Amino acid sequence: MAEHIGLGRYGDPLNFYGTRLACNVLKRVLAAGGNLYFALPVGRPRVCFNAHRIHAPETIMEYFTGLEIVEFCGVHDDERYVERVGLDEFRESEYACGMFWFRKR
Questions:
Q1: What is the number of structural domains in the chain?
Q2: Which end of the chain has less neighbouring CB within 10 Å, N or C?
Q3: Exposed, middle or buried, 59 (CB in 10 Å: 0-12/13-18/19+)?
Q4: Which domain covers residue 90, as residue numbers?
């Protein structure tokens, strides 16, 4: 859902930094030693007006600075699921799904 925040789709105010703000809240409320499983559209960064954002995986890593990345997986545009891949795996994707597993130390 973080990819929808700040686009006004659900009556929320427009905010360019919607996803970043959502990630900041998740980081703040995550307990020490806690796990965070976070999934959203990844690929070539863009906003699909009033629908969602697509983020570069590296951007999500920046938003969760301070958390440890345990694993990154995803689903390609052609629906292939891949485990334990590098962040660049989806760099040129149109609309892939990136799945991040973070842990707070």
A1: 1
A2: C
A3: middle
A4: 2-103
